[in-house]
Amino acid sequence: MNREELQTILPHRAPMLLVDESEIVEENIVESSYTIPEDPWFTRGHFPGYPVVPGVILCEIMAQSSVLLIPKEQLVPNLAMYGGLDDVKFKNSVFPGDKVCVRSHTTVMRPPLVVVESEAKVKGKLCCKGTLKFMLVPKDKLGL
Questions:
Q1: CA dist., res. 24 & res. 105, Å (int)
Q2: Buried b / exposed e across 117-139, counting CB within 10 Å, b at 16+?
Q3: N or C end of the chain, less CB within 10 A?
Q4: What does pTM read for this prediction?
Q5: What's the rounded Cα separation, in Å, for the pair 124 and 110?
């Protein structure tokens, strides 16, 4: 899936759409990528002279990729919202220009709870990994 196709599934839009392309490689495994822009809004001031991508942005890149594992019939009437982040580890820094490759797999799919294991790598080096939990919240309860 390219960005245009992703926007039919994900509610995110620029500048918060943090997936460029994605593919379901098996029923419960997704692989996605996102190339960090050369001057992203989230590195301006984080940190001057050392523009490192914030860890929460790496978690969001993994989350947006992971949500694609939720069956469309579950996702369409609901919004997948964070329910928790567990055992998140940051191993290597990510910088503007880097291509972040994410691989996620489902460990629990019991709507409204969805749990995935996810990892993000740049050039094969692990940058971030963790367990991401989502709650499927009915869009009508959110006024959407």
A1: 10
A2: bbbbbbeeeebbbbebbbebeee
A3: C
A4: 0.96
A5: 32
Nearest by Cα to 67 from 20, 11, 122: 11
pLDDT class of 93 with cuts at 50, 70, 90: very high
For 53, 89, 122, 127, 130, the CA distances from 56, given in Å and listed in that order, are 8, 11, 16, 12, 12
> Residue 144 above 90 pLDDT?
no
Q: Please name the residues in contact with 24: beta carbons below 8 A apart, sequence gap of 6 or more.
A: 30, 68, 69
Contacts of 107 (CB under 8 A, 6+ apart): 115, 116, 117, 131
Given a cut of 90, whether residue 5 has pLDDT beyond it is: yes
CB-based contacts of 57: which residues, under 8 Å, 6+ apart?
18, 42
Q: What count of residues does the chain have?
A: 144
Annotated active-site positions, please? Answer: 46
Residue 92: helix, strand or coil by DSSP?
A: coil
